[in-house]
Amino acid sequence: MKNNQKVCIIGLGYVGFPLAVLCSTKGYEVFGFDKDEEKLRRIEKRENIVEEKYLEEMIPKAKINVIRDESKMNDCDIFIIAVPTPVDEKYYPDLSFVVSASETVAKNMKPGALVIVESTINPGVCDEIVKPVFEKAGFTVGKDVFIAHCPERINPGDPKWNVTNIPRVVGSFDEKGLARALEFYKSIISAEIMPMKSIFEAEATKIMENSFRDINIAFVNELAKSFDLMGINVVNVIRGAVTKPFAFMPHWPSCGVGGHCIPVDPYYLIEKAKELDFDHKFLRVAREINNGMPLYTVELLQDALNKVERSFKGTNIGILGVSYKANVGDLRESPALKIIELLEQREAVLHVFDPHVSEKSTAASSDEVLEKSEAIIVATNHKEFIEIPAEKFRDKGIKVIIDGMNCLDKERIQKLGIVYKGIGR
Ligand SMILES: NC(=O)c1ccc[n+]([C@@H]2O[C@H](COP(=O)([O-])OP(=O)(O)OC[C@H]3O[C@@H](n4cnc5c(N)ncnc54)[C@H](O)[C@@H]3O)[C@@H](O)[C@H]2O)c1
């Protein structure tokens, strides 16, 4: 079956690109459509545009037919929508990408196609936003178009879990849509594919997973602050709690929560619930706590600078790391960007380096940052930063280190006479 089906993926980013590679290696004829011309050019050159190691072996074996003219997708049997679902500056969900991708598919598909939304969406989006686009184009859902939702759970940079082996949940409006979507995912993924009773349940599953993380991270971030006042190291406490072999799952405090998912997805549920006059208080508080962590980090720096008789104004401060997570260059919602903004407002002189983000780096290396700075904030736990020997900080004249990711050797740094402060540590 699969070899005579054509798959078109709309949106070739962190989600769509690995999926396109996977589908091709599993024998599907794959078409890829994206509005970003630069991305398309790189894909044509067979570049690993998401820098994932596991894709290196797969890319040479994969063929993605990049299309710029959307009418060329008209022959496809399966369409997968993997476009962004961000929030605007007021944290209001922006579904315009999902709408425009759906319109592109509806305009170009032939009757009978299966359309799968992989983008993260709140319960009700397939019903209220996606389905009407197809109905408006003259299709009847469950008859000449089949719509399913299979939320992607990919975790960029994860050494073990990736698009090939992460279990999935799938929901649809009708049995045929569900059966076709299940068959498709079973043909490409070596993991459980769980059918959900409805498309709403599938949508809700992903939002629940990411809200769960946001809430738990907010909880440890809050503990980091209160335990700090009590003189208790929260990281050691979490390590202690992990020894309980059941009913505890560690989450770790940090200078903030970034990425396209955790700090964004809860807002989709918060706003959906508002329509029903329900206040998702718990989610709102979690967002507030996590959004406040960059400021808390800057306040820790202020206290530490006081100890060495410095103020923000005019002090050379180094920022190690700009991306939101270790060893990747993804800047979306990165707390480091907020920290930089707050320090600029305070007229500090900044020296920034991220080995994965040249466009935001003002220095050519971490050595240059250390050379020019008196105080350091480690905002991302990139491998390169964890490996910096404590003595190097001292030798370069660093007086203060704020370890926003709790990734450095606290005792060793303190022994060298440097003022060290982690988040709750
Ligand atoms: N990045 C992750 O770790 C991750 C994990 C799980 C789920 N998700 C979800 O998957 C979805 C996609 O995320 P991503 O990280 O791949 O985003 P991304 O920004 O990396 O990629 C999305 C791509 O879609 C393209 N695009 C936007 N509108 C388009 C349109 N109308 N037609 C064609 N292309 C269009 C963009 O140019 C971009 O290349 C989001 O809903 C996200 O929440 C992301």
Quick summary:
Helices cover 40% and strands 14% of the residues. With 425 residues, the chain is α/β, with parallel strands linked by helices.
Could you please describe the fold and organization of this structure?
- The chain has 425 residues and is an alpha/beta fold.
- It folds into 2 domains: 2-196, Rossmann fold, CATH 3.40.50; 200-425, Rossmann fold.
- It is built from 15 helices and 13 strands.
- The chain has helices at 16-25, 37-44, 96-108, 125-136, 175-188, 199-230, 234-242, 265-275, 281-291, 293-307, 335-345, 366-372, 383-386, 390-395, 410-415, and strands at 6-10, 29-33, 64-67, 78-81, 113-117, 145-149, 168-172, 193-195, 316-320, 349-353, 375-378, 400-403, 419-422.
- The strands form 2 sheets. Strands 3-2-1-4-5-6-7-8 form an 8-stranded mixed sheet, with helices on both faces. The chain has a 5-stranded parallel sheet with strand order 10-9-11-12-13, with helices on both faces.
- Strand 12, helix 15 and strand 13 (419-422) form a beta-alpha-beta unit.
- Helix 10 (293-307) crosses helix 11 (335-345).
- It is elongated, with a radius of gyration of 24 Å.
- The model has no long low-confidence stretch (mean pLDDT 97).
